[in-house]
Description:
Layout: H1 11-24, E1 33-35, H2 36-43, H3 47-59, E2 63-65, E3 70-73, H4 78-102, H5 105-115, H6 127-143, H7 147-167, H8 174-193, H9 196-208, H10 211-218
Antiparallel strand pairs: 1-3, 2-3
Amino acid sequence: xxEAVVPLRTKSDAAYETVREKILSGExxxxxxxxxxxxxxxxxxxxxxxxxxxxxxxxxxxxxxGAHRDAKVxxxxxxxxxxxxxxxxxxxxxxxxxAAQRRTKDDIAEIRASLxxxxxxxxxxxxxxLLRHRRFHRAIHRASHNDxxxxxxxxxWDKADRYRRFALEVDRGREAEAKKDEEHRLLAEAIIxxxxxxxxxxxxxxxxxxxAVQATRRxxx
Length: 221
């Protein structure tokens, strides 16, 4: 039996992943200008694979490309945040409801593992804080066993992280953080118990009191 061929990671792939992580982590903040020559030298590649990477990021709405050699990290927009919230209000409760119906023993184990040590994100969250939060929600999405739904929520999550970071520039207080911790616990319990309606209701509340909603209040319209 032939072994599966693993595609080689190109310089363009590496540049794409590097720049994308810097944008999502806030190292390249919204509105910042990226000089292609300087950025290519920093990453250690030529400008050709970098331009390919930037075109991919433009397609994802993370950068804007000028006519010359500069790129710009896309500004945060109230309209985009609204669109993301509307999509999440529709898709996240659906995924959570399906997860409660379809979760396997492995899904339950991953949800429990991802809940351990999970805390509401602090102000100025690091990459590890974002990844820990994402692992929990990804475990729920994957437990839905609906590949199209999982892929859609993955794409939404990437864009939404920038708005979460923006909202955390203002301290939301310990009471709000404790509420998020409680919602995470209730989500896990409802899914594990197979309570699809209860799980969907908790997820709806989780979104309606989320950082994205707080970001909406601060973004200019």
